[in-house]
Amino acid sequence: MEGKCNLTLLSDVTDGCGFFFHSDFGLLSKHISKQLAVDDVDRALKYGYPLQQKYKILIRKGECLRNQGCMQDATIALKLALDSLSESTLTTAEIKVKSEKIANLLRSCSSESVREEKATASSCGFDPHPSIANASRQISLQYSTEKGRYLVAETVIQAGDVIISEKPFAVVLLPDHYDTHCHYCCDRALAPVMCSHCIHVQYCSEVCKDAAWEDYHEVECPMWEVLQEIDSLGHLGVRIILSAGIHKETMISSFSKSLPTTSNGIPGCRADGIYQADYGAVYSLQTHIDNQTQENLFQASMTGLLLSICVHIRLGKDNSVHWDALCNDTEVCALAGLISRHILQLRCNVHAITAVHPQGHADDPGRKVETTEQVRVASAVYPTVSLMNHGCDPNVIASFNGSDVTIRATRNIKNGEEICHSYGPHKNHMPVAERLRKLKEQYFFDCTCSACHMTEKEPSDWSMFKCSNCDQPATLLDSDLVCTNQQCLHKESAKEKLKLKEKADNLFKEGVRCCDKEDVEKSLQLLQQSLHIHEMVLFKHHRTIAEVRDCLARCYALQVHLALFCLLYKPESSTRKQIKKAKRVITKALPLLSRYYGNQHESVQELLEMQACLLSL
């Protein structure tokens, strides 16, 4: 945490400390986050903000909450502000002015509250399943000896429909993001709140800090340095135990025997047949113990034993530190067995929480267009999401809001069709042989999905040329291109197409250089030429075509940025055409992004803000 100054590290706060939290309020409310500004107000009040000026920050809190659409909370804050006026040093005339301002704000909250309720009701497009926690009523849970547990569509599911919305049973932030993200919800910690007992972890709010302490950090806090010596799977394994409260059981050795037996024959379901996504569901996840290497089994066993001893000592169940005594303790061994079980399960059932982060120096003021990449932020276990089997051509997509995951359909799914998501290997990103190898190595199964079955002996579409006869993929064999379409099998010389591809590649490289120099017009010209030639010789799903289009999109974004600048400072210029073009692009992009990621996704919100900006010009 070098270079950070965080006032929440202070345990003994004087009355004047409230000023420090309030001093950040203006910056947060104007430039970063209104919710963080509200949190700072709450901390200022908690740590003794002067009563005479209390009305000021309560008014600001009410304004922020109103702007967020939280009318009920805004009304409460504003009424408290009205009551606080009597404690101020204002004159009678000044109190009257402030009272009128608060009254106007209260009236606006009242008129907006009805609209807020309607919007909340209409935004809920998720009809919960009566017997599958966190899942839509549109799906059902099935089981077979070949497939294990899997989900199928109970009715026709439309593209964009939410199938699963789930909070993690347990989650562990990855070390690279300790200083930037919340250790509880995995959201960005823009105004970090430190643990009151250590300097190792931070949170985005007091709420997350208190929840983490209650769930697991009270036990983890003094053993944090030990946790940093093991991998994230070991850490997540013990956090599952702590989050479930298993360490509080008086007889851990008999705990697993007390788990209910399901009535429907599907592992993880309760006695009444309901899949609750509780600890019983996590416990039922496959360990694949027969397929694990001896090294993995030994490492999981030793890690489980080490962590169980640490937890045992931390809870004060045994003050003895004698290794032999602890290793032979029945309860320690039982806890070690559970942790080891979860570590083995996580090798096949862990989910990566991802976020879109800017590449390079995001704070560079000279950057007009930001290039982003998907980054793994945390590891988590989701019992309901784990019910889905793998498909190399999945029909769903996952998006994250902090650590909360939402699974949406990417295309229309027929009644009775299996719901599949990608465990990593995807038909558009990896050849068949490599997909089969990776799935076998990590998940211990031979993939028989349609994408692997139909193209088992064929090269991948994204690395192939285009057949001149039927436009289908053609593979390079020696000096010839041979069509993979069994109805065509056209054969032609590769010489001319290889020469054209080299020319197109050079145009692409030059176009990228011009784009980096912000020579937009020349870059667009070169990239469009490159795209035209690439589309002539390469199959439509070829990776290079996607890369050229991505760079074109970057250029168009840069062009819009420059057009906005010209419109603001040179309104007589001809840039209004570019603004109209940008409006059309946003209008087309919004429904697509909303369908797959939801209206609250960061990318959708950014587009809405850009659209509002353009409409105001």
From TrEMBL:
Molecular function via GO: histone deacetylase binding; methyltransferase activity; zinc ion binding
Organism: Stichopus japonicus (Sea cucumber)
Subcellular location: Cytoplasm; Nucleus
Keyword Methyltransferase on entry: yes
SUPFAM superfamilies: HIT/MYND zinc finger-like, SET domain
This protein's name: Protein-lysine N-methyltransferase SMYD4
GO CC terms in record: cytoplasm; nucleus
Transmembrane segments: none
Record Gene3D superfamilies: 1.10.220.160, 6.10.140.2220, SET domain, Tetratricopeptide repeat domain
Catalytic activity: L-lysyl-[protein] + S-adenosyl-L-methionine = N(6)-methyl-L-lysyl-[protein] + S-adenosyl-L-homocysteine + H(+)
Matches recorded under InterPro entries: SET-MYND_domain_protein, SET_dom, SET_dom_sf, SMYD4_SET, TPR-like_helical_dom_sf, Znf_MYND
Major location category of this protein: cytoplasm
Any Pfam family hit: zf-MYND
Function: Protein-lysine N-methyltransferase. Monomethylates PRMT5, modulating its transcriptional activity. May also act as a histone methyltransferase. Plays a critical role in cardiac development. Acts as a key epigenetic regulator of gene expression during cardiac development via its dual activities as a methyltransferase and negative regulator of HDAC1.
